[in-house]
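Example 3.
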Amino acid sequence: MSDLHPVSGSRRDPGAPGPLLRLLKMLWADKPATCAALFLLLVVLCAVFGPMLLDAVASKQNLRGRNAPPFDLSQPWVMWLGGDQLGRPLLARIVTAASNTMAIATGAVLASMTIGTALGLAAGWSRGRLGQAIPRLADVIMSFPSLLLAVIVLYMLEPSVGNIILVLAITRIPVYLRTARAEVLEVRERMFVQAAIVMGASVPRIVFRHILPVILPTLVTIATLDFAFVMLAESALSFLGIGIQPPEVTWGLMVAQGRPYLTTAWGLSFWPGLAIILTTLSLNLLSNWMRIALDPAQRWRLETGGKKNG
Amino acid sequence: MDMRIALLCGAAVSCLGLPAFAADTDVTIVLNEELETLEPCMASQSNIGRVLLQNISETMTELDPANGELMPRLATSWEETDDATWRFHLREGVAFSDGSAFDAEDVKHSIERTLSDQLTCEIGAKYFGGMTITPTVVDAHTIDISSDPAQPILPLLMSTLTIVPAEAPMEFTRDPVGTGPYELTEYNVGQDIILARRDGYWGDAPAVTKATYVFRSDDAVRAAMVQTGEADIAPLISQTDATNKATDFAYPNSETTYLRIDSNIPPLDDIRVRQALNMAVDREAFLGTLIPEDAQIATHMTVPSTLGADEDLAVPAYDPEGAKKLLEEAKADGVPVDTEILLLGRLGNFPNVTEVMEALQAMFADAGFNVKLQMVEVAEWIKYYSKPFAAGETPALVQAMHDNNRGDPVFSMYFKYACEGLQSGICDEELDADIAAATGTPGDGRAEAWRKAFARAHDLSADVFLFHMVGFSRVSERLDFTPTIATNSELQLSQIGFK
Amino acid sequence: MQRFLAKRAVSSAVSLILLVIAVFFLSRLTGDPTDLYLPVDASAEARENFRVLHGLDQPLIWQFLDYLRDLVRLDFGDSIRRARPALEVVTEAFAWTLQLALITMAIVSGAAITLGALAAFNLGGIFDRIATFFSLIGASAPDFWVAIVAITVFSVGLGWLPTSGTGTVWHWILPVSVLFIRPFGLILQVVRGSMITALGSPYVKTARAKGAGPRAVIFVHALRNAMLPVLTVIGDQAAALLNGAVVVETIFGFPGVGKLMIDSILQRDFSVVLAAIMVTAFAIFVMNILIDLAYAALDPRIRY
C-alpha cells in the first residue's frame, strides 16, 4: 500500500541525502524540467532581492526618454529591454515587480488550493448534509462575479497585496473544491479505500493518507496553470482600477499599462507578459515532471535516463 | 456538403460584399461605447449627443464652434424683453419626423420635460441647476422664457436644450422624435443604430443619406476599422494610434486638466506652498510624450475660446530649486510643509492619466514635497472631488478634467472657485465677488468681468493647471469632414461631405 | 435520479436566494449611483430628487423587501442607466454570451480531450512536447495580446476577416479563436495528466494484458476513468465564459453579459447586476447538475 503513496513515503525521512540526490538525478534526466527549476529559482531570487537592490533604479523617471526600444546594448544593462512609458528601465522594473507578483500569485493559489481541497475532501467524503451543502457553496462562489467581489472588498478596504490575495483566492476556490470532490466520489469506491475502511482506519487517516495523494497530481496541474490566471486576473483588476495601483508594481499592472502601446512600443507589455508565460511554463514543466517522479508506475521513465521516451 | 459550401460562400459574399451594396453616400461611425438610452434630454452625454444632437433633435440656438457666436436654429431671432425674460421667435414651416408641426407649445413642453423632477435629465441637471425657468406661450411661433435669477446668457443655455414634440411622454424614450434632418430607422441594441435622411426637413438636404453607428470599446479596434474600411469615422481614437496624417485629426476637445488644491487645509493654505506646487511641474516635458503635443498648457479653467479666457496669464516657470526655496521659507514661518499630501487621480479619466500622475508625483517629490499618489475609480474619486471632500483633514490635490464647451465661464467658475462651489478648494471673498459680478453682467462688459475673475484665481495659485486637452479622430479619406471642438459632444451628419 | 434532481432543485433554489440576498446587500455597500449618474455640478436638490425617484432614500431593508415583492412577480426592476427593464437588458446580452460559450466549449472540449489523450499516450515524445509547450503558452498569454495581434494580422494586414462585430459567420472566427486558447491549454493539461495516471493504473494494465489494442486502451478504458477531473475543469471554464468574456466582448464589440456586468457594477446599476447574476447563476447551476449527472453516468459506482 505504501508503494502506492510515495508522497507520504518520502516524507518519512526528509533529511536523508539519499532521496534528495535521487530526486535531483531524476530532475537532471528531464532537461526542460531542469531549465524550469533554474528559471523559477531566478524568479524567486528576483522576488526576494530585487526590490532591495534595484528599487531606486526602477523608479527613476525620464519622460523625454520614454518607450526606449529594447536591445540597445550601449545603455546600462537595466535598459537592455528598453524603457517604459515614463522612461524607467523595463528590466529593472520586471525584477522588482517579481516580488509583489509572486506574493500575490503564490498567496492566492496556495490559499484557494488549500481551502478548496479541504472543502472538496469533506464534500466528497460526507454522504450527509455537508456533502450537499458544500458544493452549493461552490455554486454560489462560481456565480458571484469576481469583479463585484473585488469592487466590494477593495472599495471598503484598501487595494493592498493582502486584500488582492483575498479576492483572488476566494474566486478560485470552486475549481479545487469541485475537482477534489469529484475525484473523492470516485476514489472512495476503490478497493484499497474500502479495504482501509474495513480494517478500521480513522477517517482523517483514510482521507489524508489514502485519498489525498491520489487526487493531488490533478490539483497541482490546475494550480500551476492557475498561476497564470491569477497574474492575469490581477492585471485585469489593475486595468479597471481596483487592483494594485502605482507606485506599487506587478507584472500584471505592467501588462495592463502597456496595453495602449501594443502597436507602437510592443516591449512595454510584451516583456512582463513573457515573464508571466515563462513562469507558468516553468511551473508546469516542473509539475509534469513531479507527476512522473512521484508516480511509482511512471518513475522508470526518469530513472532510465529519460532517453527511452514513450 | 454542397449545402455547406453554398452557405459558406453565401456568408462570404454577404460579408465581403457588404460595402459594395451600401450606397456611397452612407457612412458608418464607430463610437467608443454603446448608448445607454436614445433620450433627447440626455444628449449632453458625448455619445448620445453624437447620435442625436442636430441630427434628430435640434435646439433653439446653436453655438458656432469657430467663433463662439450664437446662431439661429429653431429660433430665428431673440431679444431681451426685461431683465429676466427673453422672447424667442420660432422658425415657421418646421415639422417633426412624426409629421406634427413645430410650434411654441413644443418648446414649452420640452423645457418643462427637461427640467421635470419626474425624469432625471442630464441637460436639466447640468445647465439649469439652481434656477427656475418659466416658459410662456405668446402665440404659435413666439415664446417668452423668464428665469429666476436672471440669466444674461439664456439664449446660450437654449443651445443645450433639445426640442421634442408636445406629445413626448414624461418617461425616457427609445424612439426619439425631432425636427432634425434624420430619423431613427433601426435600433439593434448592442449592435447598431441606423439613422436615415428624411424628407420634409426645413433646411437644406445633407449629403449623407444613411448613417450607421456601431460601438467598440477598444481604441485600437476603432482605429483599425476606419483603416480597413469597416467604418468611416471614429470620433475618438487614442493618441498612440493617431499615426496617419491623412486620416487622423487632432482637435481641441474643450477639456481642461488640473489639480484642485484643497487650500483650506495646512500646509496648502499657504500661498507659497501652492506656488511651489505650480513651480515643481515641468509641463513642457509632458507635451509630445504623455500628453499629445497639440495640447495647450493651461492657465485658465476653461479653453481659450471661452469668453474672457483669452488673456495671457503667465505659465508658472518650471523651477524645482525655486520651489524648494519657497518651501523652506514657509517652513521657517511654521507652515507644516512636511505633512504628507494626498495626490488623488481618477482612473481612465484621459489617456495616460496614471502615467501622468506618476510623473507628477515624482516631480513634486523632486521639489521637496511629501506626496502620496492614489488612483481610484470614478465612484470613489467623486467623493474627493465634490463637497464634502472625502479627504477630510488630509491635505489633498485632486486631479480632475473639466469640460466647458458652451463658450461661457459661468458653467465653470462658480462650481470651481466660489466659497459655496461644490468642487471649490478655495474660499476668497474677492474672488467670490468677481464671480458673482461676472455672472450677472450682460453684453460687452461680460468678457472683461470674467477676465478679472480668472486673473484673481491665477494670483491665488488656486490650482495646478495642466493642459487644455486634444482628442483624436480618424476620418476615412473618402469623406470631407474635419473634426472641431464640437466633435466631443456632437457629430452633425449634415457637415459631412464626400470627396 | 428523480429524487436526486428534486433535492438538487431545492438546494439550488436556496443557494440562489442566498446569492441574491448577499449580492443585494453587499453591492449596496459600495455606494449609490446618484453621484455617478448626475453631472458633478448637479445641485443637492437634484440629487435628493434622484434618490427619491429611484427609491434610494428608503432604508435598505425596505428597498430589499420592495425588490423581493417585485421579484415574486418576475419583475427584476428597471435599469437606472438604460431606463428599461433590467431582465430585458440582461437576456439580450446573455443570448450572445450563451452562444459564444456553447460554441467555444464544444470546440475546446473536443480538441483538448483528443489532443491531451494523444499527448499522454505519447508521453515524453515529440508530439507531447509540442502540444504541452503551445497549450501552456496559450493558456498563460494575456488574451488582449492575442486578440489585438490577431486583428492586426488577419483583419488589417491580410484583410481576411472583419475586425469586429457580429454580422456574419466570419465575425465569429476571431472571437471564438481567442476564447478557445486559454481553456484549451488548461483542459489539455488536465486530460494529459489524468491520462498518464490512468494509463499507469492496474486496471488499464489488465486491459492491456487481455490484449486490447492501444486505441481501445486509450479511448475506452483510460479516458473514461480520466474524465472526472476533466469534466470538472470543463465546467469551471464554461462557468467563466457564462459569466462573460469581458476582454473578447470589449475588443470585438460582442454585446455579451460580461461587459454589461462590469459596466453595471462600476455604475452601481444594481437592478442589472442582480438580474445578470441571477441569469448566469441559473445557467451555472443547471450546468453543475448536468455535470454531476455525468459523473454518475461515467462511473456507476458514484452515488449521491
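Residues 29-300 of chain A form a domain with the MetI-like fold fold (CATH 1.10.3720.10). The two ends of chain A are 27 Å apart (CA to CA).
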